[in-house]
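To fix ideas, we quote verbatim a fold written out as C-alpha cells:
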Amino acid sequence: MVNDDPQEFIARPLRQYGYKVVVAGDGEAAWQQLQINHYNLLITENELPGASGVGLLKKLRAACMFLPVIVAIETLPSWQSSDYPWLLKATKLIKPYTFEDLLGLVSRFLPVPFRMERGGH
C-alpha cells in the first residue's frame, strides 16, 4: 500500500481484518519494495510525494508485474483513460471513499482472512 498517511485510515483497519499490510511512504519506496518482494495486491493513491500512483502503475506494467492494483483518485481525467492502457486494467477508487468501500474492493481480490475482535485475542 502506498499512501502519505496510511496507518490510521487504511493499514490498521486492514490489519484488524487479518490482512498483512506493508506500507511505503512514497512511490519510489513502493517501487523498490515491489522489485524485491512478492505482493498479492497494490493499493496506491494517485497523488504521492515524488511519483504518482499512475506513474508507479506504468512502471509495474512495463516490468511485466501483473498483480491487481487499486488506485485512489479524485477523478478520472479523460486523458488517463484511453491513452494509458495500464490504467484501464487498474481498479479505481474515487475519493472521497470510506473504509468499507476500500474493504469491498480488497475482498474482491483477496479473501478476508478473519476479523480480529476489538480488544482482541
In short: The helical segments are 6-16, 27-36, 53-62, 78-82, 85-88, 99-109. The longest strand covers residues 69-73.
